[in-house]
Amino acid sequence: xxxxxxxxxxxxxxxxxAAAPLKPSAxxxxxxxxxxxxxxxxxxxxxxxxxxxxSHARATASKGMIVLRKLRFRIADDLTAxxxxxxxxxxxxxxxxxxxxxxxxxNALKAVYRTHYFLIGLWKIVWGVFTWLGAWYFLKVFxxxxxxxxxxxxxxxxxxxxxxxxxxxxxxxxxLYGECAKEGVRIKSALTVLVYRKALVLARVxxxxxxxxxxxxxxxxxxxxxxxxxxxxxxxxxxxxxxxxLAFYExxxxxxxxxxxxxxxxxxxxxxxKITSEIQRNNTEITTQRVHVMSEVLTAIKLIKFYAWEAPxxxxxxxxxxxxxxxxxxxxxxxxxxxxxxxxxxxxxxxxALATYRFTGHTxxxxxxxxILSVFNTLRYPLLxxxxxxxxxxxxxxxxxxxxxxxxxxxxxxxxTLPIQQNDPTSIELKSASFTWEGESRPALQHLSxxxxxxxxxxxxxxxxxxxxxxxxxxxxxMNQTAGDPVKIYGSMSYVPQEAWLLNFSLRENILFxxxxxxxxxxxxxxxxxLQRDLTLLAAGDQTEIAERGANLSGGQRQRTSLAxxxxxxxxxxxxxxxxxxxxxxxGRHIFNECIKGHLRGKTIVLVTHxxxxxxxxxxxxxxxxxxxxxxxxxxxxxxxxxxxxxxxNHVAGGEEGDDDIEAMPLEPTVGNAVPVPVASxxxxxxxxxxxxxxxxxxxxxxxxxxxxxxxxxxxRNQLSVIKGVGKSHDVAGAIQRNExxxxxxxELQMAGSIDFAxxxxxxxxxxxxxxxxxxxxxxxxxxxxSAESLGWTDYVNYARAGHGSALTVFTMIFFFLVxxxxxxxxxxxxxxxxxxxxxxxxxxAVYVGTYAGFIVLFAAGVLARGxxxxxxxxxxxxxxxxxxxxxxLRAPMSFYDTTPLGRILSAFAKHQFHVDETMPDSAMQGLQxxxxxLGAFLLVAIIVPWNWAPIxxxxxxxxxxxxxxxxxxNALKAQEAVSRSPIFSHLGATLExxxxxxxxxxxxxxxxxxxxxxxxxxELFLALSLVKSWTALYMDIITSIAIYVTALLMVVCRNDLGxxxxxxxxxxxxxxxxxxxxxxxxxxxxxxxxEVQAQMSSVGVLTYYATQVKQEAPAEIKETQPAATWPxxxxxxxxxxxxKYHEFGVAVLKNVSLTIEPKEKxxxxxxxxxxxxxxxxxxxxxxxxxxxxVTIDGIDVSKIGLKNLREAIAIIPQExxxxxxxxxxxLDPFNRSTDEEVWRALEAVHLADTLRVMPxxxxxxxxxxxxxxxxxxxxxxxxxxxxxxxxxxxVLDEASASIDMxxxxxxxxxxxxxxxxxxxxxxxxxxxxxxxxxxxxxxEAGQLVEFDEPLALLGRPNxxxxxxxxxxxxxxxxxLREIAQAAHNERVAKRTTKPDAAEDPALLEHAGSPTAGxxxxxxxxxxxx
Length: 1426
Known about the structure:
Layout: E1 2-5, E2 32-35, H1 41-45, H2 49-59, E3 71-74, H3 81-98, H4 105-120, H5 122-148, H6 152-201, H7 208-251, H8 256-299, H9 301-307, H10 310-359, H11 366-377, H12 380-407, E4 411-412, E5 426-436, E6 445-453, E7 457-461, H13 468-475, E8 480-483, E9 488-489, E10 493-496, H14 507-512, H15 519-528, H16 532-537, H17 555-568, E11 573-577, H18 585-599, E12 604-608, E13 620-625, E14 628-633, H19 635-638, H20 642-650, H21 708-717, H22 729-739, H23 772-777, H24 793-801, H25 806-833, H26 844-890, H27 894-899, H28 902-944, H29 949-993, H30 995-1000, H31 1004-1053, H32 1062-1096, H33 1098-1109, E15 1133-1141, E16 1148-1157, E17 1162-1166, H34 1173-1180, E18 1188-1193, E19 1196-1197, H35 1203-1208, E20 1210-1213, E21 1222-1223, H36 1224-1228, H37 1236-1245, H38 1249-1253, E22 1262-1263, H39 1272-1285, E23 1290-1294, H40 1302-1315, E24 1320-1324, E25 1336-1341, E26 1344-1349, H41 1351-1355, H42 1361-1367, H43 1371-1394, H44 1402-1406
Parallel strand pairs: 2-3, 7-12, 7-13, 10-11, 11-12, 17-24, 17-25, 20-23, 23-24
Antiparallel strand pairs: 1-4, 5-6, 5-8, 5-9, 13-14, 15-16, 15-18, 18-19, 21-22, 25-26
Helix pairs in contact: 3-4, 3-6, 4-6, 5-6, 5-7, 5-11, 5-32, 6-7, 6-31, 7-11, 7-12, 7-29, 8-10, 8-12, 8-22, 8-28, 10-11, 10-12, 10-26, 10-28, 11-32, 15-18, 24-25, 24-33, 25-26, 25-28, 25-32, 26-28, 26-33, 28-32, 28-33, 29-31, 31-32, 37-39, 39-40
């Protein structure tokens, strides 16, 4: 039961003894192991072990690309998810026990990590000691050495001291970074494991899967970020105090002016941190909203094109984007202010302090002036880090509160499985049991009393919402039991959910689900679950890797795989939640006979079903209504009830087409597998034969003996099915959610290149598998991702041109350098001031101070101005690039969407747009702040120190070689780390979707282990990347330390060349050394920012590619050929010799189709999947343009008019209704063309007006994602109301799903018949009973029109296609269908005879029902082209 346990301490996971991951780890063999870190402290201090890592990584290069999958990174045990998860889990349990009322995740974290984390903070103190020793004391005494002409040995000692202080401070800061990165990984691992384990026992996932994924991706990431930045928060205050102490020590009370400025700046810094955090939070929300709507648009793009709804969705996206751009621009302005404070404050504070000191009667010396300047320069460190640290700390505080709230949610208390009683046949027993869902007070199930014995089949039936699935959930222990005796279940359980839940493993692994492989048992399960033929179609047989959520299988294949898992588990009790809904009738009958009644004989089976034809063959039936048992007993007993008997007699097994006639083709076949596949035989005892499936790729179709029809079937299935959008309604929300996995780690997306999130980090290959990539791509039906191809400098040029153009971009960059030139000028002026080089005399100080102040004011204004100019330019470029790609993508033809994965397109709008909006401009802004400073300092010390240019150039060359050596490895690690992050979220999402299944099979321990494996896979790469970055930064700092030493050394050796007087020498030395010391920090920061910009510039290439290279569909409107506003007035449709191909060089899926549909005719269209019935309507709506022939409506060639005019003239009712997030009115009339009265009339016509009138918001009542707050039947009725409001003369209808109950289905059919009597209606049929009353039926086969006549006439052809389809439904159903067809025919004849001019109407005469009507001889316009 759920909820009996409160929050907090979660129950231990059941250990089924199979803790190993589902997926075998054989793929890790033969890979070179590389350790992350070392046990030798010197190796860690100097990152010596990293040399081996970089060398091994570079050695894997193939065709210029580093292949990291050839390496296996290993982290220490104390860094693994298992070790940290165990530690924090224990600490959390202890926290809940000792503080049950208000447990806090922070307290548990403190208990585990506090001591070690604060010891790491000692490195920051060590860094501070050596940094200020160099910037203050050693600099001061070195300038005094130059000023006082001391012995050269003293100078050499101080030069060495300057080197050592720089060198040791570098080691300390990079140890801090490295250790904090490790501690961040420990805490992230521990929290993710804790959150995942909680998810496994949650009674209810509040906020849905997205909420939990958001906690992992955002909240835990914020805590990790705080771990990296917290030591900068508390030390910032200490560093500022230390700087002030040093200032007071040097210039006494004159430093009070500096203190005043810093005190005034403190609240500004805190405000900047908080406002940045607030902007980031708001921006993340609005970005998530934009990407969600974009995901909604892309997922349902075919429907949007059907409805010609591009304009309202464009307006919606643009409105959100406008808000987002306002926040982005504001964020850049805040950053500009922050950088102005960071770079201007030190020099302002310095000039104020020195001026105060000078005008209070003191004498300025070079040693004092440049020491004060150097000390205040270090003020940049706390000023730069404080806002970032405040932002991290405040963000982490909120996130920790959210984590605590999540961890204290109620948990399920699973039903204890009782051992089977030998003396008692009872298997399941409920006595007056009532159940509620967690968080809801109203019982979902009330007063249920059931008893099912071993070996019995219990069928559960009822309308939608009657409680069928809730009953299954209650038996699984997923609901709170509020009344009655405890549920008793004897023996183990297996479960088949209503929507098949599959994992990204092989087909076999999905079936075995952790059980041992037994060939005979496995083969029999494959047979009884009707999977034999599927294994011959899948390229690698049962070793074919299944895409996430089974995306590369048909609906029927997914459901039968899910069933096979439950059957193979060989459990005592099998719960089947509507397992036959996704399969056609023949397959359904096979499964019922061979599997449910045959293979599972002796097992207890609970079968939820809408397939009432099977009820006579089960042991007991329970009929649920409104959560209560309406009827319960044997089929014979229930048939005594007139209502039940009527329900059974009215049920027509309509020959659902199902998905099983789709010949599914694998998207990524694996070559060279020989898989033994049992071949289907006519009897249960048929002997299996081995079929060798070698090279079953799209390139070698001959091995499959695939014909043209198979290919067209495959192509048509890829069109997202006609008018269905993306299949079942619940799949739309799922598709949107999984598309959005791209942005779950928005704040972590600073990565290289264009990473395809579809790839799994587990997809590791042996070192000898270089050629495997091409083989894997051989069978792909999607196009290669050319958007990610690097264009080098072209991307920079395209970015420069965006926004306000290249000229302003170049000026902005130059402006950064010019402003820093002012800063260098001020330093040089200070050099002239101290020795009075300009000989200005007694009043010279006023001139020097005034001019210096002018430099500083100009510099401060310049820093602010350049930042604001950059902000304006960056925002303009982001806006320009987004608008271009958005308009281009929205007008792309469906062929683009059919060959481009939606995840890839969404990635452009999420990840790549995020790079262009925020992360890349942020890196560029920092780089443009640091690079002028670094280059300026290098130039200054190279010019003013004799002969220093030579070693400086040499050291820069060495630095360039180091960067050249490490950059490919760093980029490869970035890319692979990004790829490895996605599977963590995918696994979490899959777990949350399949919680019932995981709990039913007691697989929690295995899934927990798999989660930890994926975490470790990511953290190995994350640590490798972080520590390689630290290695680069350390050796850049070491090179800088050498530059500082060489500069000091040359000044000792050549001090007489520094100036003619001691004062001049001291001033030159002070200027050189104070600038050289700045390089220590800013060189490595400059290189890091340039690398970030370079890595993310490819995102500009992706956006530019989609904005320029994607083909466009025909214009929305063509003024010259625009039809009248009232067109079409009749609704006559004529196809004239139409040929259509989905791709230019593809197979023709419509072949010379000619037919005429008269006004107001009701046409049923039938045919197997791939026959072309869907394509017929695709061509009518010009979703794909015909390559030959033409289609006319009321005499107007539809290819000559705009797409908007065409599509608005045709109303659409999709098979699975799609509603968009918003309100009811927006969903019915997004253009606001109808009055409220008209909307209400449409709602009354579909029996929804009364439901809405009692709601407080009425027409503004909200519609959540995919309309999930409305029932399936209501959503279908809303779509009918939408069609009514369209005022079209032609209606295209894809018949409603078979999964809705009969009462709702009858209401929908009646609404269609009543409201569209005067329209031309084309219905794609999935159930024959709904089109048997049509005026005519059109039968498609292999892209050709093979039959087109009145249903009764077609039934009169013994060997006809339609007659065969009807015969396949079974004898009783066929007879019922024939009876309905006859009645409809009689009704039409009667109507015609009542019209006085009926005999004179040739169209009516033609429909008189003659068995030969529609034949080529009689009706040329309906000729059948063979």
